[in-house]
Fold these 2 entries.
Entry 1:
Amino acid sequence: MNLILTIAWTHVRHRARQTLVAIAGVMTGVGFSVMMAAMMEGSQDDFIRTLVDALPHISITDELREPTRQPADTVYKAAEFHGLTPDVRRPGIKNPMATIASLQTWVPGALTPSVQSKAVLRFAGRNLTTSIIGIDPRTEADVSNLATHMKQGTLNSLYRASNAVLLGDRLANKIGARVNSNITLASAEGVSMNATVVGTFHTGFRMTDETTGYVLLKTAQILERQTGIVNEIRVRTRDPMAARLISERIGEQTGYKSISWQEAQEDLLSAITLRNVLMYTIVGAILLVASFGTYNIISTITHEKTRDIAILKSLGFRDQTIRAVFIVEALLVGLVGAVLGWIFGYLLTRGLASLEFKTPFSDNNHLPVLYSVNHYLLATSVALLSSLVAGYFPARSAARLHPVDIIRGAT
Amino acid sequence: MRSTLIEARGVTKVLGGIVPVTLVEDINLAIMPREFIAITGPSGSGKSSLLYLLGLLDLPSGGEVLIEGQSTAVMTEDERAEVRLTRLGFVFQFHFLLPEFSITENVALPMRALGNLPPRAITARAEELLESFGLADHRHKTPDQLSGGQRQRVAVARALANDPPVILADEPTGSLDSASTAQVFGILRDLVALRGKTVVAVTHDLNLASQMHRRIHIVDGRLAKHDEFVGPA
């Protein structure tokens, strides 16, 4: 074995109790860091995954990025008219099918038209304001997970009856409707129609399950009193993370407002970034505290070993060799602590993942955790770095010792 | 004509502080190969301080120490460490062995630090040195399992590990009983007579000093009496 390693190993081995305490400190630090990272990143991933699954990756709506230019603005460079009725734009995306066909040539993913509408749902004397979404069952499954969330019926059940509707299970329960119940939908445009419940779905999101109903495109168009209207094209990209770039390109090509899921949830994603900063600060603090234990043991060994340092220096050991001995000791403590911390962290993560929690917002009863090698590597790197720093200062003091002072003191 | 091994030229050591203390003052001396020299003097006279200065363990405040004709004043700490590792061997009053290591490992330490020999050769040489001092049966023991005399013999073996021409010994028999003293002194004498080493030993024991080639008597840090070099007995 290398001389430095031999001396370092002998020192830590002969101070087993102190060394074990220091190792336990690093182990605890690494273990809890790994667990925290797994929990924080797991919940973040789960959140993003749910978000990505629940929402279209890109939503192209009939809003324009730039406000509509009025005819007078087009004719004159500077115009001020009073009392003119502004040019009213017909809602909806122009030529939606042609737009979809054009986008399908290059967008990596699937597209589907939809109609967003609001209606009051009446059943058994109860009125509830509901989001009614007109969909095309043939392409809906390509852009959302609605098909997999069906509890009763299927997407194709919408073809079963005229004015068929799929309701969120909580909404159905709230009004007491079941499959085949006849309900009434009244839109803001003054259209009132009888509809038949042909199925229920459960996404796990309380808001969606309590306030949303799906109908055929045609039915929603009737509610909006506009035949052929499509006011949203939903896109599911193959790579959800590429949605932002694709969305920008779609916006440029169509002129319509195209919003990626990242843009739509920017506030939440910023909060996640902030949360990550917080997490890494806490992880760093935990490991920093653990490094005090390492500093303590190396300082103690250095203090106890002043005579040995003097002997080694009198024999002709160089300062850098002496320094290296104590730094290696600190790294040994850090490394062994980190390896044990991996096991401890893994067990803590497993334990945490097995705990059950009930939340009113989601059906997921277990804490989502993420097992990632990166967490272990990061915690180990920080543990080794803090051990290095913790060992460096006592090591430097040791190397600076003047052998004669100690030899004189000893004799 | 033999070249000087160690030479002190006007060596002075003053400890700084509110009241500066002069440990060694204006010492001039030359140590030749195969000499057996005693540095004597009363307690606190500066004997050990002079030895540390000659052994490059301490830096003089004035003057200079030359090792084999080379000035050490301009050497870096690493260069001085290299000289200590290869040209000088130390034996202290207390054995100063590393307690956690076996005596073989202790003897091997300077050789491992130098790194000129493969591990097996280092162990073989360490065991050979221990055997030559009658410690072959104890080679796996740690220092606390040995008597004072045995530990001091291990310390001498360690000083010889890298085969330096000079052994500097600070009261090597100071903490030993009379039997062990005779044994260790005999070993030091044999180093000169049989192995051709130079031994410079600080001692209180005038009887032992009288058996050496030369005596350097220090009083209040100054050279009080200085035998001329007469050559090995």
Entry 2:
Amino acid sequence: MLNRRKFLTNTAAVGAAGFAALHFTPALAQDAPQIQIFVPAAPGGGWDQTARTIDQVLRSEKLISGSQITNVGGAGGTVGLPQFVNQWKGKGNSLMVAGMVMVGAIIANKAANNLTEVTPIARLTGEFEALVVPAESPFKTAGDFVAALKADPTKVPVAGGSAGGSDHILFGLIAKTAGVPAANLSYVPFAGGGEALSALLGNQVAAGISGYGEFSEQIKAGALRLLAISADKRQDGIDAPTLKEAGVDVELFNWRGVFAPPGVSDDDKAAMIKLIETMAKSDAWATECKNRNWTQILLTGDDYAKFITEDTARIGAILKDLGLA
Amino acid sequence: MDTLSHLAHGFAVAFTHTNLLWCLVGTTLGTAIGVLPGLGPALTIALLLPITYQVAPEASFILFAGIYYGAMYGGSTTSILLNTPGESATIVTALEGNRMARSGRGGAALATSAIGSFVAGTLGTLGVAFLAPTVVKYALKFGPAEYFSLMVLAFITVSAVLGSSSVRGLTSLFVGFVVGMIGVDLQTGQPRFTFGTAELLDGVDVIIVAVGLFAVGETLYMASRRYAGKDEIVPLKGSLYMTAAEWARSWKPWLRGAAIGFPIGAMPAGGAEIPTFLSYAIEKKLSRHKEEFGTVGAIEGVAGPEAANNASAAGVLVPMLTLGLPTSATAAIMLSAFQSYGINPGPLLLTTQANLVWGLIASLFIANVILVVLNLPLIGLWVRLLKIPAPQLYAGILVFATVGTYGISQSPIDLAILYLLGAAGFLMRRFDFPTAPVIIGMILGPLAETQFRRAMTIENGDWTVFFRHPLSLTLLTLAFIGLVGPHIWAWIEHRRRRGPEHVPGDA
């Protein structure tokens, strides 16, 4: 069994009671480098999956000989970020996975560190959001939804993820565009995707907002109706307009990307950008993204840094409107 | 009939040599991680996710299912023997289980929990196989209003663990509320009681609180009175396994526990802890040996909650397999494993991936059998732990609790909290405050709060929703009867017996 060695390594880590967050693979080739990936979230979530997929693809493409993944979870990444900034400083072979959720968490938690302190490498993927209603809902289009919102926002409870997260931010942006004061919105936050979904299937809320992937199977099965998606353009195989096409001028990707620690040399930074670019253009990466409903939105180096500045401003403004910052 | 043929096909998938091996590996690993307070099935499966790149989907899900069920078995062992719950669903088991262990019936407590887990796990798995589509339809009828009323009903449990003084018990309960509120408020995103500490933003893990109050507090208390009085642990009294009387007292709680655990587990926000609370309260009410609760340990108080937590573990699989709804951390990670195979879990999973789903269900039956076979002979070994002299045993518990807590998130802050709570547990024990209400308050308080505020948001502040929804009204009525009923009954009894002699003005 090929997996035997890896499996046993993992099992031993688990057996060693607690230091199990390490995942180490023996070197396969001498010339390819080893990298270290820092995940500021617990194993299993979106950032962790991104890290493990990066590791998997980089190894299968023989771009690295192995990687070590460290998880430090908590509070939208704001527990892990200070560690990455202080203890990983100058380590040229290291990456941190983070994304839009961390931008929001930094603002909402008034965190001491922020993303200007780390070195932007690349924005890799994004998940666009979906606005859905239960199959029995009277809303047939995004226009119906916005009209109801304008009439009386308190009568349109919308389910989504935690307060101040990407779902809440999109709802705030939609309301803002429609001229509805964000403070009047009736947003019902749920901790996990499953709970929000069951509130929709049980017809307990008027609409729901979450990553498209959370809803896709329910939409296919006809249990939910998709009103609009927050992508920049129509998507193959998805029979719904973008919010922009539906007359709501909002575009939002829950993006995820990678950062190097502060204080890395320009050479290390350039090499890391090249490594990630090569990976992002591989077929193996494309397949993984397709399987996981991730849209590729590659942006590297300085363009990425500029994007983060803009996104931070946009998210900061809407969180303020929602009363969270 | 259709279900039976699917199930037969599932057994054909599960009964291959490699898949049986994966099942054995999973159950063994699951039992081991269940024993450790810090490692839960969710984290373990997350760490094993990379194997999905290498083995067939059936094999990895059989492995994951084994881990999931195994952890439920393992969690009770340390609850009973060391008063150190390995999982939040086994906290209630420690209440009576540890008392039993101290009075020489540790073997019986472990046996009733293993066999009860087997019975309830098998019943629950049968429920998954045959009733899933029906159960899920009812489970979805539960909205925030219904959940809130369910929490109100579950609060009745508190009355079963209040101890001798209601004031002290309620004080403990409110301490639990405060601890439960630490962290970012889900509804508004604002931090509460975190005092600027980033590590507290996600709240305090209930396992740390349970281990701190129960295990560390107990250890400190023992150390303080080592030479003052006697509190000797009796290693073993009577037979290793259960006596005929203990069998007779166990089987009804098993069945009741399964009947409570499965439907609540199937509810999207039900969880595994609430059924154990409810089961404990019911068993205490119905038991003919009430004097054993909280003193020498009543076997009903172990059998019921243990059955309830295993049945609820099976219940969690209902929304996951029928609708693709992950309703627990473990289910969410299993669903992400589906995705790495390019399978999108959803309402069509049962039809598009019949092989996988039925193979999984069949392996759950096998895992249950393996687990009971694996655990029963181990009881003899486990109870020997209690023969360790008290100083060494308690030192060991302290080390075990510390390592396990550190394992949860490798955070030194968690250790500080553990010892702070340990000190609190010691003081509570010293001044006779019960510790169990703290845990109940901590779990139920925030849940009730969240559901209440969700219901208010949806209904735009109209609180009559709790009485307008029939299900919610029913639950509230049950809670009312549970709370007031015994008092009225006692009062009537009292009047009937002594009434005539005490008529006022009757000279």
